[in-house]
Amino acid sequence: MRHLILLLIYTTSVSLFSKNSVYHFEGGSVLGEIVEANNTHVTFRRADDHQLFRFLRSSLSLESRQAVELYHSVERYSSIPRVPVPLSDKTLRSYTSYIDSLVISNLKSLRVQPTMKASDSVYVRRLYLTVIGRIPTQAELIEFLNDRDSKKKDKLIQKLLDSPGYANHQINWFSNMLRIKDRTQGTNINVGVIYRKWLMEALSSNKHYDDIVRELVGSSGRLYDGGEEISYYLRDRGMQEDNLSHTIRIFLGTRLQCAMCHDHPFDKWTQKEFYEMTAFTSGVGRVQVNDMAKKAGKLNKIIRSTESKNSGIYNNWRNQVRDSLQFGIESNGTGKIKLPKDFAESNGKPGDVVTAKAIFTPKPVLDFNKEDPKSRIALAEWITSADNPRFTTMISNRLFKHVFGAGLIEPIDTMMDSTVPSNPKLMKYLERLMVSVDYDMKEYLRILLSTDLFQRKSLKEDYKSLEEYTFAGPMLRRMTGEQLWDSLVTLVYNNIDSPERIPGFGYDYSIIYERYKDMSGEEIYADFESLVDSNPGERNFIRALAGSDTRQKLRDRDLVRSSYLPSPAPGGHLIRQFGGSDREQIDNSNSEPNTTQVLNLLNGFVEKNIVSSKHADFIKLMQAEKSRSKQVENIFMSILNRKPNGRELSDLKGFLDESDPNGYKHIAWILLNSHEFIFIQ
Predict the structure, then answer these.
(1) CATH 2.30.30 fits 2-75, yes or no
(2) For the whole model, what pTM was predicted?
(3) N or C end: fewer C-beta atoms under 10 angstroms in the chain?
């Protein structure tokens, strides 16, 4: 029987919702407390040995079902009151203290000791890397260390969250999750650049997470006429089913892709249910605006019928005009779809029309009597509902992993009815916090960053994906490719987040849209002829149109923030060599070591562009000092964000005394190749 699945997971002894009671089920009973409940199953923790048992709700006695209903009613998050943000110091401390108490209680039950408090140097470096994705400069480090204010950590957290660096770092996290690529297959414009620009603006203005998701999933309109959000659908252009499976996996942590071809072999979802979900997104397969597509088609006919020595140029320009004009979504979703030709399950047949139905409760209601029932808007509202059983869990856990290196549910996007977090009480509390701050990611992060847990020393043991992480301290983890890149660039330019170091996101194709949106095909062709006359042989359409290049020419290795480099970084780029995502799969980055990484640090990009740079700011600091002690100290403060210990100072002073005038560069090279630099301690 399914209700006797034993899960050997230990949880905290702190109870948020109920005290130990006897719960009766078909064939037995258990003394303990409820730790998880959904519409079909209930998970109990047995009091004497902390083992977890999962039962069908229907197998419980009437009395036990009533107890579960009482518990389950607590989990209807829409009723949780929203709190004013930013949180007061008192409220913030109450939240962080409770989180820490849940962590400590769990550690006690596991007989695990928490780690000691990290030094200020370790803390500030970890905070900078977590919040803005780079190491602090020497000046930033010294400012923090010299600050005698008892609330200096709180001040720094808020300062970093409010800085441009926050969005510059967070956009990499989002791009990895959403698989944002600059160039969408089959297009002649960089749709992904529009996508990233929109997302950067959303993060910079602190748009709440549920609003971001709602706008992406429910997007419609024209790409260059207030509809930048449709880039979410353009990413999977022509692959409606793939887009739906990605949507559910990213935002609800549930993998449906196996049900695309047959009933799911490992979960309860059927193939028919998959297509009922896909029906919500009907109408996005072609992603084009009909009137504009006709205009582009007319232009194409004119070019093909005209003999001109400039036909090659016209064809190149036409492709950019076509894609700039026609991309858009006209329908908000019909809510209906036909089962595919290869549908093979017994609950339907190929060609049957199915209507949109959600896989979880609450169910969205659509009026199919309307010509446009707005099914994608209904999908967006349903996904982001506080009462959706997995939306809040997913983002709460994602951001927890973002801060501490591991999630309470791992892998983060494989949730099933049987999934139980490593610390269920903490998971539930974090979900309630997320709802109470109204999905304000900055405020939620501020809570996590203000915990004692974040201030502890990291664990030195390697984390294995199949093991539970106990959170005795933050996880020791290597910088991401983007963090490493941005930290190296920081050594060269201390002001990488300043406006003068922001290059922008590339060509602005809205110029094309605004110029041609009201022209006929004949008028566009006549304009082509005029542009060729004034720019003979010019194949760069934007330059011919605008009279100049509208972007700063960025090469892959230009020393700017990773968020402004091409997405994804090319295969040979340092970011990719250090595990940066190719943006083909969700969260497709890694921290696996390889020989190329070693070579790049030893005698590749790092040696050429950082250590040997004549313009690097940290090199200038070395050159400005005559004292050997100060030189060594400056190197350590710049790269490792700490002062050297007594032995390091003595040994390296001696090395400088015996070496050539550029000896400090050798020390910098050694430190940049150390684990201490590469890892987030």
Answers:
(1) yes
(2) 0.86
(3) N
